[in-house]
UniProtKB/TrEMBL annotation, chains A, B:
<dbReference type="InterPro" id="IPR013786">
    <property type="entry name" value="AcylCoA_DH/ox_N"/>
</dbReference>
<feature type="domain" description="Acetyl-CoA dehydrogenase-like C-terminal">
    <location>
        <begin position="470"/>
        <end position="597"/>
    </location>
</feature>
<dbReference type="Pfam" id="PF02771">
    <property type="entry name" value="Acyl-CoA_dh_N"/>
</dbReference>
<dbReference type="GO" id="GO:0016627">
    <property type="term" value="F:oxidoreductase activity, acting on the CH-CH group of donors"/>
</dbReference>
<feature type="domain" description="Acyl-CoA dehydrogenase/oxidase N-terminal">
    <location>
        <begin position="40"/>
        <end position="158"/>
    </location>
</feature>
<dbReference type="InterPro" id="IPR009100">
    <property type="entry name" value="AcylCoA_DH/oxidase_NM_dom_sf"/>
</dbReference>
<comment type="subunit">
    <text>Homotetramer.</text>
</comment>
<dbReference type="Pfam" id="PF02770">
    <property type="entry name" value="Acyl-CoA_dh_M"/>
</dbReference>
<protein>
    <recommendedName>
        <fullName>3-methylmercaptopropionyl-CoA dehydrogenase</fullName>
        <ecNumber>1.3.99.41</ecNumber>
    </recommendedName>
</protein>
<dbReference type="Pfam" id="PF12806">
    <property type="entry name" value="Acyl-CoA_dh_C"/>
</dbReference>
<dbReference type="InterPro" id="IPR006091">
    <property type="entry name" value="Acyl-CoA_Oxase/DH_mid-dom"/>
</dbReference>
<keyword id="KW-0560">Oxidoreductase</keyword>
<keyword id="KW-0285">Flavoprotein</keyword>
<dbReference type="InterPro" id="IPR052166">
    <property type="entry name" value="Diverse_Acyl-CoA_DH"/>
</dbReference>
<comment type="function">
    <text>Involved in the assimilation of dimethylsulphoniopropionate (DMSP), an important compound in the fixation of carbon in marine phytoplankton, by mediating the conversion of 3-(methylthio)propanoyl-CoA (MMPA-CoA) to 3-(methylthio)acryloyl-CoA (MTA-CoA).</text>
</comment>
<dbReference type="InterPro" id="IPR036250">
    <property type="entry name" value="AcylCo_DH-like_C"/>
</dbReference>
<comment type="similarity">
    <text>Belongs to the acyl-CoA dehydrogenase family.</text>
</comment>
Length: 604, 604
């Protein structure tokens, strides 16, 4: 039986052989128990739950979707049972503080569990992951009272959480929001406004929903500088912790979306009856800063969602290709008597599978590595190291979100192509994966916004130190690879691309600060593409170095796996990196056409 | 009010200024009336019908879809009325022979009408275009009796037509089909078999459906060499032309698809009660040859479908970008008092629109040009010219289908990205366009199969003459462009890419005939990509040459349009062609990894 959702051997490779996740146990008391055996057990449990419970209801979630009646949202019938199971297993807040109900798990390990869960049923998972995210905000910025009121119930899934940013006229431009907060005498605020695109804004999975809400206190400055963050529960919470009265948060609509049907995307009206009360979370007018904390985590999570869809698509496509009998071997195309073979034998299908394989492996390594960097940014031995890894998280977040989800959409589309006509039929898994994954390129900041973040903020952050540190890591990997004869050729190609990235990054950074700033930003997305290609090449090279080293002492059954890791690098170096060099050449043109063309040269 | 579906000025440009479609009127009696005025009138009528009737029911088609009950398919409620209107307007067989009910219109002109119709409602159009295609088969291969029985009713939309190739185990490998034809004493055949993925295989728009069916006469050879083509009506036709008894063609299921919901995709059982009678169309065992005639036209049509979706997506995205107010100008990003602007002002959005603009314009020019080549292959003055243009049709078909639909999917996705979160909501047009367009990459031969056709068949066809002729055309355009100072720079870049294509085409062609044949075919799709980039560059250059020339004597209102044409070329030359050179570099690697990797190096 083929593996579902993900390639367990590759997960083991990344977690144990590349990142050596068990070494994290030495850094932090909470992690002390996470030796190799425990890590394996945790991932295995997540895998079992994902395959046995989340995956079987994924299609039901897509087909049934959510319905709204009289302000109440009904989720797909099986979701509640599985949501309860999920919480019984204590999976909702794996990386959060155990004192509040979290599991205190290393991020590196949680990445593997998240891959299985999201690959199995990502629309379902949104209810869970947003709850953790909202909880994390409270954990970080909340008063002791707020933490006591909300946290344990959220981390155990008794209540869920959301994130209320977007308004009809304030999407990418959060600063344009108009939701108001009017101070009450008791220190609370009356909240009035309309929010849209709220994932899990209303549903029937939990008895209360806690909304972190961005709003402007009356009289606060315009733009992002006047935004504060509030906690607004669906039902108020009495002092004894029991549920109080309805807090005037009304679900006025749910969106009919192309994908993620199992998750409710709600429009919420706050305070239409003047009766919506919230408490300030963090400081006045510092709401954006607080949201950014959540946003970085949320962006990485979106990368996980996209990657998990791509990973699942790859496993499905591979299985289909091995079993679908169609056509003869190309070398026998003129011989009608030759036997039909699995499409896995056809060169173009194998190319597609190699595209999927190399991209998914690079994604997995990058996504897990960013999680590892989070662990290190919190618990590395020295402050200097912590700062270094924090810088890596910052720089790599737009790649892990923007570049990864762009590629994830392509991988899912490639998977559909492997299925041929069956890929377009909803009975098979590809259509849903492609529809679901598409939103990951849009939400939590479109991928264009990620690219602007990379060029405008991350590149020059801290005088460019994080970027320089990252180049240092890449060079170390290249140097290691060049010492291994079978990798030398590919390593040289990766080195060429890394050097070119350094040149182009300086060019782009300088251009962005000069008179051609608009042209620079018109090339931000292509710059993110080329940077992402390079980062993926680095990941594949790192993998190949580890594989080549471990190959020497490998058990027989592991040999093909390690060889396959090296093949991914070779494929990428031969087929993608020449194109990456072309992307760099285009970036050095820094085309200004898009910003210089007059408006009336477009069709009216 | 913004233009819907397409850019009329650009259609005029391609039809009149580039292809000079009115000159076709001199070549053929049927075309004699098609002077500029008539052409404009025909296109205007199509545009009106498309916008007033087809477009408004597109969403209904998507939402309602088709239903199957007791073997009967019900199409969306409004489809029948519009189908009748469409046929009253005599739009079903625009390019077919008037003696059978066609309109005898130049293909070049029909391309423009097809763009409007398919851009407005492509799922609806499938019923119509397949009918024309099936009719064309009968016109070409049918006996006088078959023509008399079927053609007029089909070309006037009283009856519709289909194309029955695919079976559950015979998709891309048509030769594997098992549908049987058993000769009867009266010269007819009893047909028995199961066909799937039949667009419009059953519906309620017309009183009869005529199925061209691929089947194997008992005792015929295995593979494609033993396949014959039959005409199988849903209801038999009496000698007086009236409908006779039901012909045992039973619709056993319809597919639940990701897109094109308005079109029924049927499973058909033929002869389950031993009562399905067909007549041979063309010669015994020559069914594939006949189907190929239809297939080339069908493949070009799929290119039209993909392009029309992309074109519509571009017009929607442009309109949205001009009207959606969000964020401030980048140069005032730090000034919260600056006014919010349309997203059309943001560099990344303008880049996206330029990607869409340049691709859509190149697509339009290529698609119309291939139609023009069909006209010329039929009616050019000399046999030599006819042969030349026939060769162009052959070589350009995989580009017009495979490359165009790959890009069309990306353009639709880009359009969704311009809409941001609203793009993912089904209320807005982007989700449907993206879902609908995706099948164009799969059906009528997946784009991988198109790429194999290009590399394995078209490249070396007729000793390479068509390909060489095509290079000749490109060189002519380049030479003209180099004489125009403002185009010289871009022309030089296009020239570089064209020369590289020539080198790589020889390399790929030679490799495909040598021991590395599998590696060559593992690079067939990337070769199609690079070839397509080059063809698009040629199209954009051709457009720019015409625009630059016409600019000199242009009316004031046309100046921005012509300048915009030149901007598309410049954008493409600066941002895409360097990447195309990278693609060529990758092709010269001719990576064999995909075909050399051992099966067990993939996950099990």
């Amino acid at each position: 039986m083929a593996q579902l959702i993900s390639d367990q051997r590759d997960i083991d490779f990344v977690v144990h052989e590349i990142l050596e996740a068990h070494t994290l146990s030495e850094l932090n008391d909470n992690y002390a128990d996470f030796n190799k055996k425990t890590i394996d057990m945790v991932i295995k449990e997540a895998k079992n739950l994902a395959i046995k419970e989340l995956l079987p209801i994924n299609k039901e979630g897509d087909e049934t979707g959510c319905t709204l009646e009289n302000g109440k949202v009904t989720t797909p019938a099986s979701f509640k049972r599985v949501f309860d199971l999920f919480n019984e297993g204590e999976w909702l807040a794996p990386t959060e503080d155990p004192q509040w109900g979290g599991q205190g798990m290393p991020f590196t390990v949680a990445a593997a569990t998240a891959e299985y869960f999201n690959g199995a049923n990502y629309p379902f998972m949104i209810y869970c992951t947003l709850t953790q995210g909202a909880g994390h905000l409270i954990e970080h910025f909340g008063t002791e009272a707020q933490k006591k009121t909300y946290l344990k119930n959220m981390y155990t899934g008794k209540w869920t959480g959301t994130m209320l940013l977007t308004e009809p006229e304030a999407g990418s431009d959060v600063g344009a929001l108009t939701t108001k907060a009017i101070p009450n005498a008791d220190g609370t605020y009356n909240i009035v406004g309309e929010k849209i695109f709220i994932s899990g804004g209303e549903h029937d999975l939990a008895e209360n929903i806690i909304h972190p809400v961005l709003a402007r206190i009356e009289g606060a400055p315009a733009g992002t500088r006047g935004i504060s963050l509030f906690l607004v529960p669906k039902y108020r919470v009495n002092k004894d912790g029991s549920l109080g009265q309805f807090n005037d948060v009304i679900c006025t609509g749910i969106e009919h979306k192309m994908g993620i049907h199992g998750n409710s995307t709600c429009s919420l009206s706050l305070g239409t009856r003047g009766n919506c009360v919230g408490t300030l979370l963090g400081e006045e007018n510092k709401g954006m800063k607080a949201m950014f904390l959540m946003m970085n985590a949320a962006r990485l999570l979106v990368g996980v969602q996209g990657f998990a869809c791509a990973g699942a698509a790859y496993m499905y496509a591979l299985d289909y290709a091995k079993n679908r009998i169609q056509g003869r071997n190309l070398t026998e195309i003129m011989n009608p008597g030759a036997p039909a073979v699995p499409i896995f034998r056809h060169p173009d299908v194998r190319r597609q599978l190699m595209v999927m394989k190399s991209n998914v492996e690079a994604m997995r390594t990058l996504i897990y590595y960013v999680h590892y960097c989070i662990d290190m940014s919190k618990y590395a031995a020295t402050d200097e190291e912590k700062a270094k890894y924090h810088g890596f998280v910052e720089v790599l977040t737009p790649i892990a979100k923007g570049y990864v989800t762009d590629r994830a959409f392509e991988v899912c589309s490639q998977g559909m192509q492997v299925y041929g006509g069956y890929g377009f039929i909803e009975e098979y898994p590809m259509a849903q994966l492609l529809r679901d994954v598409r939103i990951t390129m849009i939400y939590e900041g479109t991928n264009g916004i990620q690219a602007m973040d990379l060029l405008g903020r991350k590149l020059g952050m801290n005088k460019g130190k994080p970027v320089m540190d990252l180049f240092g890591e890449m060079e170390t990997t290249i140097a290691r690879a060049k010492d291994i004869p079978i990798l030398e050729k590919a390593a040289t190609k990766v080195e060429e691309v890394v050097k070119k990235l350094a040149e182009v990054a300086i060019h782009m950074g300088t251009t962005a600060m000069g008179p051609k700033v608009l042209a620079a930003f018109a090339n931000a997305h292509p710059f993110q593409d080329a940077t992402g290609d390079t980062v993926f090449a680095w990941m594949l090279l790192w993998r190949a170095v580890t594989a080549a080293q471990n190959l020497e002492k490998a058990k027989k059954k592991d040999i093909p796996f390690y060889q396959g890791v090296i093949k991914s690098l070779e494929f990428y170096a031969q087929t993608v990196l020449p194109i990456t060099l072309g992307r760099f050449a285009a970036l050095l043109n820094t085309s200004a056409v898009a910003v210089e063309i007059e408006d009336d040269m477009f069709p009216s």
